[in-house]
Structure to design on (394 residues):
């Protein structure tokens, strides 16, 4: 196919999240001569907007207040008809629902949806009393119905998500393409010492400290409270251990209260700064061990980022995480919600520096072979061409 393929990407926001970062990374590497990209976002959150502007990609804000701002549907439909894309590609649940229905009602095909995770695992209710079960049920029915009747294809970020897509949506595998999330390895090679030194100085990190790091949204799903509880045993056996938890979210005050109640002030740090891409990479550089205790997960792009920097990882044995972190190879997997298992894994690795170095090397190799953007963007381009050709033939 020689003509330029016009793609309209619909996402919930351009805030600093994993799915948003993957989208921008893909767009930074896709062949701009063959693909004309437009990005539509439903809600506020524009951290990645400068990145799109630097790439010369047109973006459209719908300015929706929330999911129930139905005027956004008509704005989205008009915007899609103005763009007149060859492919509509939706990302994240609310954007999936709106995007599929708006595109289908406007007669635009094919419609693709990327699923970084299936949000209907039973684990979503764990430690999450604020979750509105009625709204959850409405989302589930709308998502499943729009997926079955509107979407022509699905891109899944893991084999685990493909399995749950089949289970919860009843989608045939012939409509599904596996496309692992990926990272730009160039961002993780060389430099950054000044940022590392500055953050160490500001946080009071010394050369003798063993630094553990968690980067994730501060939310029940991410399991940080179990990691904080594990630090009681870790600090008892390893007084020079420090844990940095970097993220934004509703649990900041709760996590800080837990740190205080366990007497871990100065040992567990939950800073509200260091959110820029350069600072996140600096945090990954300065840590000795990356810990990711999620209760459930879609992929965990930050795991691949830690591995790109040669950091051994301790992560939950749940969802697609075993597809990213090889237990005993690039890290150690533990069962979710088990502070004791986390503490034992941390102390076991710290006591074996040779194993940590070997895991770091193995992790870097895995990222180079499986999660390098230069490989996955070629797969994405082939998927777009496949569905565009198929649509042109009908």
């Amino acid at each position: 196919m020689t003509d330029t393929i016009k793609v309209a990407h619909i996402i919930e926001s351009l805030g600093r999240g994993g799915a948003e970062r993957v989208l921008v990374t893909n767009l930074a590497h896709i062949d701009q001569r063959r693909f004309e990209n437009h990005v539509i976002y439903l809600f506020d959150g524009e951290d990645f907007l400068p990145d799109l502007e630097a790439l010369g990609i047109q973006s459209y804000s719908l300015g929706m207040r929330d999911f129930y701002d139905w005027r956004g549907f008509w704005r989205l439909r008009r915007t899609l008809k103005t763009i007149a894309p060859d492919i509509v590609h939706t990302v994240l649940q609310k954007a999936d629902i709106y995007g599929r229905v708006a595109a289908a009602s406007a007669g635009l095909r094919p419609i693709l949806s990327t699923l970084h995770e299936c949000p209907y695992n039973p684990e979503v209710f764990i430690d999450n009393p604020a979750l509105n079960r009625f709204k959850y049920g409405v989302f589930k029915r709308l998502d499943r119905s729009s997926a079955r009747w509107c979407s022509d294809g699905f891109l899944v970020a893991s084999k685990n998500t493909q399995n749950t897509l089949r289970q919860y949506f009843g989608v045939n595998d012939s409509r599904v393409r596996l496309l692992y999330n990926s990272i730009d390895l160039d961002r993780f090679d060389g430099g950054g010492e000044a940022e590392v030194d500055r953050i160490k100085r500001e946080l009071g990190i010394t050369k003798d400290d063993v630094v553990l790091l968690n980067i994730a949204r501060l939310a029940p799903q991410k399991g940080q409270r179990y990691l904080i509880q594990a630090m009681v045993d870790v600090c008892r056996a390893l007084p020079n251990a420090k844990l940095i938890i970097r993220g934004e979210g509703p649990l900041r005050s709760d996590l800080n209260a837990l740190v205080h109640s366990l007497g871990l002030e100065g040992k567990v740090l939950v800073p509200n700064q260091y959110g820029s891409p350069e600072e996140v990479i600096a945090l990954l550089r300065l840590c000795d061990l990356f810990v990711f205790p999620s209760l459930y997960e879609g992929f965990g792009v930050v795991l691949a980022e830690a591995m790109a920097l040669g950091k051994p990882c301790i992560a939950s044995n749940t969802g697609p995480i075993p597809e990213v972190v090889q237990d005993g190879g690039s890290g150690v997997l533990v069962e979710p919600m088990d502070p004791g298992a986390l503490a034992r894994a941390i102390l076991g690795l710290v006591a074996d520096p040779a194993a940590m170095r070997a895991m770091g090397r193995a992790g870097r190799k895995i990222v180079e072979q499986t999660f390098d953007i230069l490989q996955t963007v070629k797969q994405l381009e082939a998927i777009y061409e496949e569905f565009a050709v198929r649509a042109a033939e009908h």
